[in-house]
Write a structure and sequence with these properties.
The protein is built from twelve helices and eight strands. The chain has an eight-stranded mixed beta sheet. α2 links the parallel β3 and β4.
């Protein structure tokens, strides 16, 4: 038996010291740089009776290598064009891997073809999309990375539908595995500006042209003063949960990690200003074989801008795990 596969150490890269600067760098330094690939728009019908379709952007490198298709899932209010998704796509393309940047229901380009919305446990939507991929794309399997809320969706996907799909490995980055704790952390005074900014984006996304909303839902979205109220009055009601606490509990990745059966690394930063570390620490010794919880000393929220590399540390972690499969 070979030596266990381990992630590289993380040290922050100057001048991005501390969780807040690590978090904000993606916004401060965002550049609309073209990806070095041939792009193809894909559409994925969903199996429910909504008529909605997901969409994603498939990227093919100039010099492909034999490798699983890398699937990237964005976080809350994100899309295929989120800075962290584009950075991860560029990382894998540079190594000859095909990449699918997937949009959740009603996000980014999928808003125009989806009347519905996504939520923290919408694993079935992602299952439908990945099951709809052509065999030529899945013949070497899939390697999936989910960011923030997309990481929690990924954990639910692995636990509930992992055996239905050719997923060979996965990485979650800064996933809110206990959503209620995350909501309450975001509503804390030290996160006032984060909370106001994020709630504004959530409202704009949910009510964008193309969304199918009742008058009650439009009023609830407009009236929400906190993320908890938004989730209680809009998200929970729309998806059949009793209230926000019930929605948070039933979609919490922490509850289903024990059911994951593929190699998976769950990455988190101790100084993440949005997501508490305690849920990760509580599960560290109770994960199934092949699943590792890795808490770095720094990195912020979906930051991980580390010394020694231009690319984020979480991408190098994904590379280590993928190469080991």
């Amino acid at each position: 038996m070979g030596a266990p596969v381990t992630p590289p150490p993380f040290r922050p890269r100057a001048p991005w010291w501390g969780g807040d600067l690590q978090t904000l760098r993606n916004t401060i330094m965002w550049r609309d740089t073209p990806l070095p690939s041939k792009s193809e728009r894909l559409f994925f019908p969903l199996r429910d009776d909504s008529g909605d379709r997901l969409t994603g952007m498939l990227e093919r490198p100039a010099k492909p290598v034999k490798s699983p298709l890398v699937v990237l899932i964005h976080g809350l209010t994100g899309s295929e064009d989120s800075a962290y998704l584009r950075a991860s796509a560029a990382f894998h393309l540079a190594r000859g891997r095909r990449v699918l940047r997937l949009n959740l229901r009603g996000s980014g380009p999928s808003r125009a073809i989806c009347g519905g919305h996504y939520h923290a446990g919408c694993a079935r939507d992602v299952r439908d999309a990945l099951a709809g991929l052509h065999e030529s794309l899945t013949s070497e399997g899939l390697f999936v990375t989910g960011f923030s809320l997309g990481g929690n969706v990924l954990i639910n996907l692995l636990a509930r539908y992992g055996e239905e799909l050719p997923i060979r490995g996965a990485v979650s980055v800064s996933a809110p595995i206990e959503p209620e704790q995350t909501a309450r952390r975001l509503m804390a005074g030290r996160n006032f500006f984060y909370h106001r900014w994020l709630l504004k984006k959530m409202k704009s996304e949910a009510s964008a042209p193309g969304a199918h909303l009742s008058d009650r839902e439009r009023r609830a979205i407009a009236a929400a003063r906190t993320i908890l109220e938004f989730d209680d009055q809009f998200v929970a009601r729309r998806f059949g949960f009793n209230n926000a606490p019930n929605y948070y509990y039933r979609t919490a990745g922490a509850r289903v990690i024990r059911d994951i059966r593929v190699p998976a690394w769950l990455l988190h930063a101790r100084d993440d200003p949005w997501i508490p570390t305690a849920p990760y620490e509580a599960l560290r010794e109770r994960t199934p074989p092949g699943v590792r919880i890795i808490v770095a000393p720094g990195g912020g929220h979906v930051g991980f801008h580390g010394a020694g590399h231009a690319e984020p540390w979480h991408d190098h972690c994904a590379d280590v795990l993928l190469r080991s499969l």
